[in-house]
UniProtKB/TrEMBL annotation:
Keyword Protease carried by entry: yes
Annotated GO MF terms: serine-type carboxypeptidase activity
Listed Gene3D superfamilies: alpha/beta hydrolase
A Pfam family assignment: Peptidase_S10
Signal sequence annotation: 1-18
EC number: 3.4.16.-
Record-given protein name: Carboxypeptidase
Matches recorded under InterPro entries: AB_hydrolase_fold, Peptidase_S10, Ser_caboxypep_his_AS, Ser_caboxypep_ser_AS
Classification of source organism: Eukaryota, Fungi, Dikarya, Ascomycota, Pezizomycotina
GO biological process: proteolysis
Catalytic EC class: hydrolase
Protein family (similarity comment): Belongs to the peptidase S10 family.
Keyword field: Carboxypeptidase, Glycoprotein, Hydrolase, Protease, Signal
Coiled-coil residues: none
Length: 509
């Protein structure tokens, strides 16, 4: 998957218009559902999805609801967000719901659904969608939401210029969602990936700020390879150290390695790492002057790509050939296009798929839209590590930040640099380096498609309400490549296990 969940510009032309005809309107008496069916009421029936009627999917995906809801109390508001909601059958879930958000800005959360954590996944290189043994819906109620306005199947006109406005629109939508599904008082968890590292803390903060636990009973958040600082901190500064670490894989020659290490010294990156990536951090704020060295990164990527033409920043171990995908990559210059013999269409643009999941028929779905979801592409909010993330951690019971070690879009050391420079719950950074073992239990009897690694999967550390962990064999999209690991830290977020070094079996086994 070469999908960009991040802040890279996409070249596709986006079309989206307000429209909501073509929904399946069920009339009472409602069909008998195979599973719990508790959510089927007069107000939810128009969102009901027939679980045996998804094109290409040859099994029952269970009870779910999808469609559009407005971002304000005005029922006729033309700005509406698209959601796909799956109640869980896990009795341990109780009255709680997890929101999943992809990044971009402008990437659809259905990407995460189909590639990472949904009840069925259709991963790159596989020829049909299959049941996902690691579906997050095994653990709790989950809703995938296309936001902000202009993203995925959401409709309307983007008007926002910062995360405060984004949050206000999201909360407007969420109030309608709670009313529609009668979720008053339910515990809310928010998880996001990549650029959603900016959405998650701002939305959670806005929810806490309402004091309205009827509609916004926010409990905790989860970050997956997420942007909480800036590209300099989370990418440029730690980049050369990262290349040094992985050069047994990249195989860059000594001359080039010497050149980039000297450049890292000149740019101030080496000194910055030495000074601030320490545990505990120095008390003074970061004060090393960095030089403008933006071409260094371009040179590094060019050198790696020279050796490995299929090099993928999302997962540095990827190699040729690039796999065919029902979510085709954007047409980057020079990027080869592979077609399947059967489905040459993007899964979510198949008309029968749109109809089955109550998506607006006239919206051309794009994995990451080329529209400006922020007016003029400007998101004016300060990065979350400038205050908002701390406020959210301080008011949550559990906050999880997971980072894949094979990700070269955002670097784990960069996230740690940011956290070491951030103050929460009365102190700055972590006092000791993450060193507890993050353990993923084994599970037997899975089919080949759902195989996933187990054992010690990285290191973790919890301090003052924040849990950081690295996931060894995952890149930017952890639930796609290391689904068992992501399932495990979701168990932790939800309070089902006490710590990530626990060797207890999965709670669902
Ligand atoms: C649901 O709709 C049916 C038929 O339209 C109606 O008879 C019934 O009273 C409604 N129930 C509620 C709780 O509104
Ligand atoms: C659900 O879809 C299946 C397969 O298309 C169909 O046989 C069934 O009648 C549908 N159920 C309802 C309630 O529409
Ligand atoms: C929505 O309804 C309100 C009140 O009925 C009306 O004033 C407004 O013009 C409508 N807006 C749109 C976009 O149709
Ligand atoms: C929420 O509660 C806090 C603390 O009690 C208070 O300072 C704040 O004004 C309240 N906010 C709203 C919107 O009621
Ligand atoms: C935190 O955990 C305590 C004890 O389990 C619980 O009573 C409380 O409601 C939780 N609060 C939040 C915000 O999660
Ligand atoms: C992360 O930073 C530490 C300290 O500078 C360094 O020893 C380590 O090699 C770095 N790891 C990676 C993967 O860059
Ligand atoms: C910069 O930080 C270092 C410690 O990290 C400190 O020794 C030095 O005095 C600081 N310099 C300034 C100008 O603040
Ligand atoms: C070393 O790598 C650099 C960067 O890819 C390349 O330009 C150079 O030709 C290489 N040198 C040798 C001797 O292979
Ligand atoms: C292959 O994909 C390209 C780009 O999406 C499309 O233009 C072309 O028609 C496809 N060819 C076949 C045989 O499906
Ligand atoms: C797991 O982590 C907790 C908290 O850091 C620690 O107290 C405990 O000793 C660790 N257990 C193991 C088996 O490492
Ligand atoms: C998820 O649920 C399915 C169906 O009950 C089960 O087969 C699978 O083992 C569960 N996955 C995990 C990781 O427990």
């Amino acid at each position: 998957m070469k999908t960009l969940y991040t802040f890279l510009l996409i070249l596709l032309l986006g079309l989206a218009a307000a429209h909501q005809d073509g929904w399946t309107h069920l009339q009472p008496p409602y069909p008998k559902l195979q599973k719990r069916g508790t959510f089927l009421t007069n107000s939810t029936s128009k969102f009901w999805v027939n679980g045996t009627n998804i094109p290409n999917v040859d099994f029952d995906i269970g009870e779910s609801y999808a469609g559009l809801l407005p971002i304000t109390s005005k029922a006729n508001d033309s700005n509406q967000l698209y959601f796909w909601y799956f109640p869980t059958t896990n009795p341990a879930a109780g009255n709680e719901i997890l929101i999943w958000l992809n990044g971009g800005p402008g990437c659809s959360s259905l990407l995460g659904f189909l590639d990472e954590n949904g009840p069925f996944t259709w991963k790159p290189g596989t020829y049909q969608p299959l049941q996902n043994s690691w579906a997050w819906t095994n653990l709790t109620n989950v809703v995938w939401i296309d936001q902000p306005v202009g993203t995925g199947f959401s409709v309307g006109k983007p008007t926002i210029t910062d995360e405060i406005m984004l949050s206000a629109q999201f909360l407007g939508f969420w109030r309608n969602f709670v009313r529609t599904f009668s979720l008053q008082g339910w515990k809310v968890y928010i998880a996001g990936e990549s650029y959603a590292g900016r959405y998650v803390p701002y939305i959670a903060d806005a929810m806490f700020n309402t004091n309205d636990t009827t509609n916004f009973n926010i409990q905790g958040t989860m970050m997956n390879d997420a942007l909480i600082s800036d590209q300099t901190t989370q990418y440029f500064i730690p980049e050369v150290a990262y290349v040094n670490y992985w050069n047994q894989l990249f195989r860059l020659n000594d001359t080039f390695m010497q050149y980039i290490n000297e450049a890292a010294d000149t740019c101030g990156y080496t000194a910055y790492m030495d000074e601030y990536l320490v545990f505990p951090p120095p008390s003074n704020p970061a004060n090393i002057t960095l030089q403008k060295c933006s071409s260094l990164s371009t040179e590094i990527q060019a050198a790696i790509t020279l050796k490995n033409p299929c090099f993928d920043l999302l997962l540095i171990t990827a190699s040729c050939p690039l796999l065919w995908d029902v979510i085709p990559p954007p047409p980057y210059p020079g990027y080869p296009v592979y077609n399947s013999t059967g489905t040459a269409n993007t899964f979510f643009n198949i008309p029968a798929v749109k109809q089955a999941i109550n998506a607006p028929a006239d919206v051309v779905w794009e994995e990451c839209t080329s529209r400006n979801v922020f007016v003029h592409r400007i998101d004016k909010s300060p990065p979350p590590d400038h205050g908002v993330y701390s406020r959210v951690i301080e008011r949550s019971n559990r906050t999880v930040f997971a980072h894949g070690a094979l990700d070269m879009i955002l670097l784990a050391n960069g996230t740690l640099l940011s956290l070491q420079n951030m103050e929460w719950n009365g102190a700055k950074g972590f006092t000791s380096q993450p060193s507890d073992e993050f353990y993923v239990p084994p599970i037997s009897g899975l089919n080949a498609f759902n195989q996933a690694g187990s054992g010690v999967f990285g290191t973790t550390h919890t301090e003052r309400g924040l849990t950081f962990l690295t996931v060894d064999l995952a890149g930017h999209t952890i639930p796609q490549v290391a689904p068992a690991a992501s399932y495990r830290y979701l168990e932790f977020l939800l309070g089902r296990i006490d710590s990530l070094n626990s060797t207890e079996p999965f709670t669902t086994q």
